[in-house]
Amino acid sequence: MMGSMARIVTGIAVVCSLTLGGGLANAADSAFKYVGASKCKTCHKKELMGDQYGAWQKAKHSKAFETLKGAKAIEIAKAKGIAGAPSEAAECLKCHSTAATLGPKDYDKKPLSNSDGVQCETCHGPGSAYKSKKTMANHDKSLASGLIVPDEKTCVKCHNDQSPTWDTAKYKLANGTTTGFDFDQAAEKIDHSIPKDVKGKYIEVEKQRKGAGGGNDDDS
Hints:
This protein is mostly helical. The chain is built from 12 helices and 2 strands, in the order ααααααααααββαα. It has helices spanning 3-8, 37-44, 52-58, 64-67, 71-79, 90-96, 120-124, 133-136, 139-144, 152-155, 183-189, 202-210; strands spanning 171-172, 178-179.
């Protein structure tokens, strides 16, 4: 897989502005359940893998919920006639917190927290069936097990003109025009790719570095 799509397929997720339309997906009717970023980091915090978890922590997605507590968010919510704190309003939470759109039946084991903001599975799909190292090492098997390769349709559920912070001049295109959202440029901003020499052969590379029979990380 080439270009920006390859850059984001194994990572974590673009900041969802205080949005009044769209929203993050709910998995209530899915056989695949949410495991949370804390589970994803078992492998995706490793330097060998590219530390996607660390990239997510530094990016705006992980802080999406916290932005709702700021003065700007409170001002916007008031202007939009939203009663109460934006950090408690469904209109805001649906694009600022993965957990806010989920219920008890959506979780594999532990529930997610609003404080996690927009976490890995918002863009990559609930990971209960593809979380194991052996499954993730096989791209086709991962897709069959619920892994989502994010595309523009994934992002515009929240990054759209219904957001009160939508800026039609945010991204400049090659033809000189501007747009409020451009998938390729947005993906570049949150690049969290697996190193080329590791992608698709992580288990083998890990064993080589640790010695034959090594790399027995949690595959559950």
